[in-house]
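Our consortium's second objective concerns turning raw sequence data into structural hypotheses that experimental partners can test. To show how far this objective has progressed, the report includes one record in full. It was chosen at random from the queue rather than selected for favorable results. The single chain below, 82 residues long, was entered without modification.
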Amino acid sequence: MSSLSEQIAAGNDALRLMNDPTLKAAVELVERDLFEQWREAKFEADQKYIHATMRGVKEFLRILQATIDSGKVAASLAEKRY
């Protein structure tokens, strides 16, 4: 288990990533591209694969948000301790 300071640092890093314009643009481009591929896919198996990839992108973003939230909780705990 990581220390509060490590959780706070990870949360700050994740927040910086989530707010990075290059990452935001890349995620939007990937999502648009995947949606277009899904829409044009002729086979259900291809659609399922693309959908799973889209879910992976969403899971990545969810984990970043969870890291941000954990960092905020750790910062709050650290503030109460000191």
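The partners drew two points from this record. The two ends are 20 Å apart (CA to CA). The chain has a mean pLDDT of 95. Both points have been shared with the crystallography group to help prioritize constructs.
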